[in-house]
Structures are given as C-alpha cells and as structure tokens.
C-alpha cells in the first residue's frame, strides 16, 4: 500500500472515532492494516466512502493510469444515504433520480453490489438493467472487480472459483455462497430464489426505454409489471415484539 492509502485509512478512522482513537488504532493494527480481518476490513464495513476510495480506488481515485473523474459532493451524499439504508437499516426502499452523466451505475449500483457481496450483507442480489447486454456487461465488471482487484483479494481472499461454483455471463455464485444475478427489464423476477431464499437486494438501474414511455398505455404496462413482478420478488421485514429480527429486501430504483 502507498502512503496515500495509509493517509486515507487514518482520515476515515478519524471521521468515525476522532483523532486520538484513530491514532491508537493505526498503531495497534500496524502489522495488519489492509490484510484479512485487518483494520481496513473493519473500517470498510462501517464506511461505504472509505470502501469505495480504497478497495475500488482504480475506479474512484484519480491516477495517472486511469480516466477517473473527480467525485462531487453529491456522490458522497449518495454513499451516506446508502449507509443509512444498508448499514443502519433505516429504510428498505430508495428511489434516486439523477441527470445523465452523473455516474449512477458506477457510483451506486456497481459500488454497492461489490460492497454488499464482499461483506456478505446481501445473500442474493438481483440487478435489473434495460437490456440483456446491459445486464451481462454489469456482471463482467463486477466479476473483474472480485477476481482481479488485488486490494479486494488481499483482504477478502478468493471469491471467484468457476470450477466449483456457477460463474457465467448472467450470474455469479461466490465461494461464500453469495449470489449476484443480472437480468434485463423484460425478464421476470418474481419467484427467483437462491438456496431457498428470496433476493435480499434488488436494484433496478435505468430500466425504462423509449418504448416504455412513448404512450400512456406503455407507461401503465411498465408500472404494472414493476408492481406485480418486481415488488413481489423480495421479502418483507420480520418483527417480533416490535423488534426487527430480519430485514426486508432492499430496493433501489435508479433513473
């Protein structure tokens, strides 16, 4: 790791715990800052911005050998909103409407799916794109991150084993039993299960095409499919004596 990596680790430790405790943690874990069960592992689980800036740094940090753009304030606002949703479990459904060119798929869908997968926070994730090609492209990018990203591999180990588990252009069954699947907006989602469990995270990423909004009847048909298929694919939260014992499926709709 570089000096910049260690500085990033310290900065986000300081944000969470203050200057004194951040320094103590850096000293205490100096022999395992970035390895398995190391300090970066623990911090990344509590901070999506840190996870993205360290583990996905070739995507989100400007370097001489990449074409990354500088992040804007609203990207950090979105990551904080995602933290409230998936870490603090404050709500189950989120709709984000952003202009084109604002890196929705990369900053939200890609980053969150990788984050939820490596920490096993989503047992079964489904990402729905507009077309089959969009879905397959997404799986390719996530597989590349899990299989070839040295930062992730150093901390989380080998997550892809195509000899023992199903790994193809539409889905990935990881060595931790986590499953990631990508489908098109014309594919049915209702009734899908992984090892007997319904999806725990569903992301609908820009699923409306021009044909879906060309008329009122087309819009109504798309909405009906969403309400009767997508919203029935997940599970609701389980409460006992007013205490949540199982979170509901997390839904994120991007457009």
What keyword list fits this structure?
six-stranded mixed sheet, alpha/beta, 255 residues, globular, 10 helices
Rg on CA atoms, Å: 19 Å
The total beta strand count reads 8
Low-confidence stretches: none
Structure classification: alpha/beta
Helical residue percent band? 40-55%
From N to C, what is the helix and strand string? HHHHHHEHEHHEEEHEEE
Report, as a whole number of angstroms, the end-to-end distance.
37 Å
Write the topology of this structure:
Elements: H1 3-17, H2 19-28, H3 39-46, H4 48-55, H5 57-60, H6 73-86, E1 93-96, H7 104-118, E2 124-129, H8 132-148, H9 150-156, E3 171-173, E4 179-184, E5 201-205, H10 216-230, E6 238-240, E7 243-246, E8 250-254
Parallel strand pairs: 1-8, 2-4, 2-5, 5-8
Antiparallel strand pairs: 3-4, 6-7
Helix pairs in contact: 1-2, 3-4, 7-8
What would you note in describing this structure?
By secondary structure, the protein is an alpha/beta fold. It contains ten helices and eight strands. The chain has helices at residues 3-17, 19-28, 39-46, 48-55, 57-60, 73-86, 104-118, 132-148, 150-156, 216-230; strands spanning 93-96, 124-129, 171-173, 179-184, 201-205, 238-240, 243-246, 250-254. The strands form two sheets. Strands 1-8-5-2-4-3 form a six-stranded mixed sheet. A hairpin with a 5-residue loop joins strand 3 and strand 4. Helix 1 crosses helix 2 and helix 7 (104-118) packs across helix 8. The longest helix is centred in the middle third of the chain and has 17 residues, at 132-148. The chain is globular. The mean pLDDT is 94.
């Amino acid at each position: 790791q570089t000096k910049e990596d260690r500085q990033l680790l310290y900065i986000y430790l300081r944000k969470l715990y203050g200057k004194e405790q951040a320094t103590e943690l850096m000293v205490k874990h100096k022999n395992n800052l970035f390895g398995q069960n190391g300090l970066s592992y623990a911090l990344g689980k509590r901070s999506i911005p840190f996870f993205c800036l360290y583990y996905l740094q070739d995507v989100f940090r400007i370097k001489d050998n990449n074409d990354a753009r500088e992040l804007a304030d609203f990207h950090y606002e979105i990551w904080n909103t995602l933290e409230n949703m998936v870490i603090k479990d404050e709500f189950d459904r989120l709709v984000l409407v952003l202009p084109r060119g604002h890196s929705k798929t990369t900053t939200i869908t890609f980053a969150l799916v990788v984050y939820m997968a490596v920490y096993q926070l989503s047992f079964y994730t489904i990402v729905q794109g507009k077309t089959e090609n969009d879905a397959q492209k997404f799986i390719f990018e996530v597989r590349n991150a899990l299989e070839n990203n040295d930062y992730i591999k150093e901390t989380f180990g080998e997550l892809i084993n195509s000899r023992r588990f199903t790994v193809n252009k539409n889905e990935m069954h990881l060595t931790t039993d986590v499953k990631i699947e990508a489908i098109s907006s014309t594919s049915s989602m209702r009734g899908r299960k992984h090892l007997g469990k319904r999806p725990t995270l569903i992301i609908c990423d820009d699923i409306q095409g021009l044909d879906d909004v060309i008329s009122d009847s087309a819009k109504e048909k798309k909405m009906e499919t969403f309400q009767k298929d997508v919203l029935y694919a997940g599970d609701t939260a389980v409460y006992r004596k007013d205490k949540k014992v199982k979170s509901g499926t997390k839904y994120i709709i991007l457009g």
